[in-house]
Design goal:
It is an enzyme of class 3 (hydrolase). It catalyses: Release of an N-terminal pyroglutamyl group from a polypeptide, the second amino acid generally not being Pro. InterPro entries: Peptidase_C15, Peptidase_C15-like, Peptidase_C15-like_sf, PGPEP1_Cys_AS, PGPEP1_Glu_AS. It is a single chain. This protein has 191 residues and is α/β, with parallel strands linked by helices. 44% of the residues lie in helices and 14% in strands. The strands form 2 sheets. The chain has a 4-stranded mixed sheet with strand order 1-6-2-5, with helices on both faces. Helix 2 runs parallel beside helix 4 and helix 3 packs across helix 5.
Length: 191
């Protein structure tokens, strides 16, 4: 899983996101405790406008945009044979946190762009490390995070296909964030 993940990250890095976007790519190990320390440190270090997590799912047949992260139900052991005693991400945190990004809108825009990669939307990131990472990131960022599940390489898409799809998806997400910011500025201006 990790090799495939790195390959897509490499493809995305090669493509970039346009001259105005500063893209940082980090690999997150499949370990609860590492997620709990690494994700906050990435937010502190980079102060990003948006964090987009990408994970490989053996069950995915499309590039899948996850709408939300869940706090409870983490019973599966990680790569270090560890599982949180509380079986949750943030003790006392809300059950579910939605991304501020409208995933249906991103899905429609990317699908209509004729990229040749199927994109869908999901409300369940799977209650394992992907979901755990997403919830942690959503909690820290007040929703300014996204999670994209991709199918394994060659089932049916190549690394290049997935790189192009991620580029298009993230560009749409940034565009939507821009529009939301403008709307907020306008509303503040007229009050």
């Amino acid at each position: 899983m990790r090799e495939k993940q790195v390959l897509q990250n490499r493809e995305l890095k090669k493509l970039g996101l346009g001259g105005e976007v500063d893209l940082h790519v980090s690999e997150v190990p499949v370990e609860y405790q590492t997620v709990q320390s690494l994700v906050p440190s990435l937010w502190k270090k980079h102060h990003p406008l948006l964090v987009v997590h990408v994970g490989v799912s053996g069950m995915a047949t499309t590039v899948t945009l996850e709408k939300c992260g869940r706090n409870h139900g983490y019973k599966g052991l990680d790569n270090s044979s560890f599982c949180p005693d509380s079986q949750c991400c943030i003790v006392g945190g809300p059950d579910c946190i939605n991304s501020v990004i409208d995933m249906e809108s991103v899905c429609k825009r990317v699908t209509s762009s004729g990229l040749g990669v199927a994109v869908s939307v999901s409300k369940d990131a799977g209650r394992y490390l992907c979901d755990f990472t997403y919830y942690t990131s959503l909690y820290l960022s007040h929703g300014r995070s996204a999670f994209v599940h991709v199918p394994p390489l060659g089932k049916p898409y190549s690394g290049e296909d997935l790189g192009r799809a991620l580029q298009a998806i993230i560009q749409e997400m940034l565009e939507l964030l821009d529009q939301a910011e403008e709307k907020i500025h306008c509303q503040q201006h007229f009050h």
